[in-house]
Amino acid sequence: MAEPGKCKRPKPFPSEVQILFLAMLNVLLTHIISPLAYIIPVLLAVAFLTLIERKVLGYMQLRKGPNIVGPYGLLQPIADGLKLFIKEPVRPSTASPLLFLTAPILALTLALAL
Fold this sequence. Notes:
This protein is mostly helical. Helices cover 64% and strands 0% of the residues. The protein is elongated, with a radius of gyration of 26 Å.
């Protein structure tokens, strides 16, 4: 029960800013974070399965395999990924730059959408 002389205020309705924030948060969660929760573990699994394959092939050929980066070569998949993104891309001089860059993005988007 409220003290004498003080009345309980009703809870205010959410403002337009709060509603917009909640809508943006919902979009962020459903369209960005949720797919990443599926994609990142798959990418990590592929990277470390590649490391295991390289290690096994190295032992089959009587050599150590990837063991330079990190302890026992555990950071080799990360180094391979960085090398892949840092490599200088070869761009044909007569090709359309816009089409040359957007075609792989469109193909990946279509593959992930199906």
